Amino acid sequence: MITWSALLKRFISDPVAIIAGFVLLLLILMAAFAPLIAPQNPYDLMQIDVMDSDMPPSWKPGGDPRFWLGTDSQGRGVLSTIMYGTGISLLIGIGAVIVQGVLGITLGLIAGYKGGWIDSFLMRLADIQMSLSTLMIAIIVLALFQAAFDPSVYAEYAIFMLIFIIGIAEWPKFARTVRASVLGEKNKEYVDAARVIGLPARKVMWGHILPNAMTPVLVISTIQVAEAIMTEAALSFLGLGMPVNKPSLGSLIRSGFEYIFSGSWWITFYPALVLIALILALNLLGDWLRDVMNPKLRRGDE
Amino acid sequence: MALLEVTDLHVAFPRGKHHEVEALRGVSLSLKKGERLGIVGESGAGKSMLAFAILNLIAEPGRVSQGAIRFDGQNLLEMSEHDIRGIRGNRISMIFQDPMVTLNPVLTIGTQMVETLKAHRKISTHEARRLSIEKLKLVAIPSAESRLDAYPHELSGGLRQRVVIAIALLTDPEIIIADEPTTALDVTIQAEIMALILQLCRDRDMALILITHDLGVVAEVTERLMIMYAGLCVEEGPTQRIINAPTHPYSNGLLKALPQNSERGQDLYQIPGSMPPITALPSGCAYHPRCEFATERCHVSAPDLVNGIACFHPLKADAKAPA
């Protein structure tokens, strides 16, 4: 284990971590305060004027100072849609990881602690789940969902569907990580001691083993958020994710992609830039966290 | 009536698909209220296995294959998991060998103590903390109030073992099983901790099962002694009698191997060979390959425990090898 102060010290001494953390914080703040700071609410049809459509960024000829990064084909400011869209992407990423985490940690903990046939059963289930590609499952389910329901119903529930599907499809990563970690912990003496003081298995598992097995979970959580955001972006790009009137970064990229050959490159370019920055920041932080938490790579200064 | 009565206890582990090997091969013991029993033997004799078996906590895939454990008239092996949890950590507590690893590193001392109390008593957190402080004071931990919010890594080994003892005492148990409670500590701390355990047992009329390698500690603390070898009890009786005049060749060997029983300048005595693994026990008496008194009979049949000794060729008090 590593203390918070040591963690902070390592963070401050690592420029890559600082930059990644800064970018991530900036994007999160931007998304969180989008309703306050965005020049326009892209969900509010009253604020959108089709006459403003396809404007280039403000510093280009034909640009409008109201729309700093230009507008898309519906007349929405690209900057505003990015601000709102980042929030949706982050929400889906974090939401999906929470679903993955709850499912994966519970099943991994049970598999690791109980062992025997329960372990074999759950891990084979995980194997089956892993052998089905996340994108494939998502495409099938979302396509069915889209076909079965009215577009307005789809628009309303798409975000929950995405969180749920990406969450379900990726639980084995958490389950395997937690199981491996539990197998390492469960034979330690403090676990025997917890059993000897008369605690039920449930409390031994959740109260004593899990807190000691959380380090790798923390690391994969960060990387899984990036993964989930990417999956969502890919699905949206295929037209199976967030609807155009409530766009995530992926749907923004898609909506601009149609116009890229007519010269309106900014509609796709800026959301893509933000998406790359977000994923890169998350992955760099995840890698950093993994190195810091790995005792074999730990430097001698703590 | 005895408080704890273990009869003919067998613990078996599967080996391959259809076979089992026995880690305990029929151990019996009885413990009266307030009595202090020592269990001595080499590593692998089954001492810790016995302790875990008493609490019915043999780890899978092992199992108690035969025997009975009667505590206060009830057979622990026939109790439901829920009922036995009411005894574990409540009426029978255990102290482990290494305090560095028996406390959960991510929970504070207070959390671990309160949790123990709440598992067995319906009390408020406030009350549980008060009782915890009381017990920390009992084991002579300085500034007990502030220690409650400390993490295990903030305490020294000796203090941690005191905390472990305080946790064991929380519910005022009738029996404490101490599994080599001082092995992992400094020699100076060892004496302190043993003195503390002894004093607590005397003051509170608690029974003690002390598992150890250390015959010196056993002699000071316990009233009765059990010598274990390869999953069996080979000699049992009053501690002073066995220490002064062991009758089993193995007990005798253990005592002779104590450095203080060797002449200065002489090589230290050691029992030849080592304890056989439970998967490859010799025929007859398990000790015969290492025994200097072994005869043909020892190769063929195993002696039963009769009058506290399991040997065909018990030593007479005067025949004891020169110490």
Task: Supply the key terms.
heterodimer, A: 302 residues, mainly alpha, MetI-like fold, 13 helices, elongated, B: alpha/beta, four-stranded antiparallel sheet, 12 helices, 10 strands, 21% strand
Structure description:
The complex is a heterodimer of chains A (302) and B (323). With 302 residues, chain A is an all-alpha fold. Chain A has a single domain (84-295), classed as Orthogonal Bundle (MetI-like fold), CATH 1.10.3720. The radius of gyration of chain A is 23 Å and the shape is elongated. In chain A, helix 9 runs antiparallel to helix 10 (201-212) and helix 11 (215-237) runs parallel beside helix 12 (249-257). Helix content of chain A is 71%, strand content 0%. Chain A contains 13 helices and no strands. Chain B has 323 residues and is an alpha/beta fold. Chain B has a domain at 99-170. Helices cover 32% and strands 21% of the residues of chain B. Chain B has twelve helices and ten strands. Chain B has helices spanning 47-54, 81-85, 99-102, 109-120, 125-138, 144-147, 157-169, 187-204, 215-221, 239-244, 249-256, 296-300; strands spanning 4-15, 19-31, 36-40, 63-71, 74-75, 92-95, 175-179, 207-212, 224-229, 232-238. Chain B has a six-stranded mixed sheet, with helices on both faces. Chain B has a four-stranded antiparallel sheet with strand order 2-1-4-5, covered by helices on one side. In chain B, strand 7 (175-179), helix 8 and strand 8 (207-212) form a beta-alpha-beta unit. In chain B, helix 7 (157-169) runs parallel beside helix 8. The longest helix of chain B is centred in the middle third of the chain and has 18 residues, at 187-204. The relative contact order of chain B is 0.14. The A-B interface holds A 1, 115-116, 188-190, 192-200, 203, 207-208, 211-212 and B 52, 55, 57, 60, 85-90, 93-94, 96-98, 101-107, 115-116, 119-120, 164, 167.
Q: Strands of the biggest beta sheet of chain B: in what spatial order?
A: 6-7-8-3-9-10
The tally of beta strands of chain A, per DSSP, is 0
CATH superfamily of chain A: MetI-like
Helix content of chain A: over 70%
CATH architectural type of chain A: Orthogonal Bundle
Give the count of helical stretches of chain B: 12
Quaternary form: heterodimer
CA radius of gyration of chain B is: 21 Å
Indicate the mean pLDDT of chain A: 85
Structural class of chain A: mainly alpha
How many beta-strand segments of chain B? 10
Residues in helices of chain B, as a percent range: 25-40%
Largest sheet of chain B: 6 strands, mixed
Supply Rg of chain A: 23 Å
Examine the coordinates and then state which fold CATH places here, giving the name of the CATH topology of chain A: MetI-like fold
